[in-house]
Amino acid sequence: AQSVTQLGSHVSVSEGALVLLRCNYSSSVPPYLFWYVQYPNQGLQLLLKYTTGATLVKGINGFEAEFKKSETSFHLTKPSAHMSDAAEYFCAVSSGGYQKVTFGTGTKLQVIP
Amino acid sequence: NAGVTQTPKFRVLKTGQSMTLLCAQDMNHEYMYWYRQDPGMGLRLIHYSVGEGTTAKGEVPDGYNVSRLKKQNFLLGLESAAPSQTSVYFCASKDRGVTDTQYFGPGTRLTVL
Q1: Which residues in chain B touch residue A34, judged by CB atoms under 8 angstroms apart?
Q2: pLDDT tens digits, residue range B38-63?
Q3: A17-51 confidence digits (pLDDT tens)
Q4: Which of A3-7, A74-78, B55-59, B100-104 has the lowest mean pLDDT?
Q5: Contact at 8 Å (CB) between A57 and A48?
Q6: Could you tell me if A10 and A108 are in contact, meaning their C-beta atoms sit under 8 angstroms apart?
Q7: Spatial contact of B66 and B55, defined as CB atoms under 8 Å apart
Q8: Residue A103 to residue B4: CA distance in whole angstroms
Q9: Of A37, A97, A49, nearest to B104 (Cα)?
Q10: Min Cα–Cα distance to chain A from B16, Å
């Protein structure tokens, strides 16, 4: 079985501050890990994903995430928040098979001017 | 490419009515999925399909049926709508590769009165 836990359903940061969104996963096999972003009234869009190889993954819009197997974590970061980053972010895990993806409950990011 | 499209975008039903949500993808993807999104619960898998003519149950299949008669289309049916089915429904598709990404449609907002 696989699962994802996102710590904090709401996160507020000031514009220009560091963004850190936390994600911990559970998987019985080596996982594939994803971060998706959802803007209001839109579908989910892939930010980045980890499959194999380099544990630091860079995505779109300046986001990156680091896969830490020992901590079973895949936290999302961005050095400097922008107003346009305000959205809901979902961490997800997949373990193969038909590639069923399990999503976390989401973290809403608020960026304060 | 249009990607993944969903119709309708909005719908209001009365309890007991039926309806069909249509998902179409033009990327020749093998796998297609239906999710529902509810506040604080992330995305939950309703049904999925690993190819034309095949469907399978996800986490929350009760009250829904699906069909995949053509590779590019995945239909989600509600035979007798209930207020508990008020939700936002997302369709997604992906190719067969283990590391391939799911692409999401824009969603259908359904209200059951």
Answers
A1: 101
A2: 988 889 999 999 999 999 999 999 99
A3: 999 999 999 887 778 899 999 998 888 999 999 98
A4: B100-104
A5: yes
A6: yes
A7: yes
A8: 19
A9: A37
A10: 27
- CA-nearest residue to B33 within chain A is A100
Report pLDDT for B96. 80
Whether A20 has its CB under 8 Å from any CB of chain B: the answer is no
Task: DSSP letter for A41, please.
Answer: T
Residue A29 sits at the chain B interface (C-beta within 8 Å): no
B50 to A46: CB separation less than 8 angstroms, yes or no: no
pLDDT the model gives residue B41: 86
Tokens of A55: 């544990």
Q: Tell me the C-alpha distance between A39 and B11, whole Å.
A: 21
The whole-number pLDDT of residue A49 equals 92
- Separation between Cα atoms, residue B88 and residue B35, nearest integer Å: 8
What span, in angstroms and rounded, lies between the C-alpha atoms of A88 and B46? 21
